[in-house]
Amino acid sequence: MNKSHAIRVGLGAGDSREMPASIDRRQFSAAAVLALLGGATITAGCGGGSSGSPTAPTPPPQTQATGDNYGVVSANHASPHIAVIRGSQLSAGGALTLDISNTFHTHSLSLTSSQMTQIAGGARVAQLSSRNPHSDGSDMHDHLVTFN
């Protein structure tokens, strides 16, 4: 018995695609993998000052009762960069620049007022950090930070 179903997939607000009404197992598996990995970011090359190798993004703590929102920093280090938007900053609205430096080198992350509104509303927002070298001057790099 072959039933025809429309399948809608999407990665976030405003991103929705309709798949063909009839798909085989391979197409379904590929769509499922893409949906699961849609929010994942894989970046290579950023060493951690003295540790030398990147680590997988660490899942951030759940949003606290204070309303703080923790971002996931791609290609993070053993001494990690941490991106936190405080609940008071989210409710205030407006553009924001976060200092996400670790103990070895600096990075900043600039978010527009529109991005802040999206984050406060629960939408997934990804933004690149500033491009900076390690403390020894090597390896110019940035990090993709994803909220929600």
Rounded average pLDDT: 73
Rg calculated over all Cα atoms = 19 Å
Distinct helical segment count: 3
Strand numbers in spatial order across the main sheet:
4-3-8-7
* Main sheet makeup: 4 strands, antiparallel
Tell me the number of structural domains.
Answer: 2
Instruction: Kindly state the percentage of residues in helix.
Output: 10-25%
Structural class: alpha+beta
Could you spell the SSE succession in H and E letters? EEHEEHEEHEE
Please give the alpha-carbon distance between the first and last residues: 40 Å
User: How much β-strand is present in the residues?
Assistant: 15-25%
General shape: globular
DSSP, total strands:
8
Question: What would you say this structure looks like, in words?
Answer:
Helices cover 18% and strands 24% of the residues. It is α+β, with helices and mostly antiparallel strands. The chain is globular, with a radius of gyration of 19 Å. 19% of the residues are buried. The model is unreliable at 1-21 and 37-53 (pLDDT under 50). The protein folds into two domains: 7-37, no CATH class; 69-147, no CATH class. The strands form three sheets. The protein has a four-stranded antiparallel sheet with strand order 4-3-8-7.
Would you kindly provide a brief summary of this structure?
By secondary structure, the protein is an alpha+beta fold.
Keywords:
single chain; 148 residues; alpha+beta; 2 domains; four-stranded antiparallel beta sheet; two-stranded antiparallel ribbon; 3 helices; 8 strands; disordered N terminus
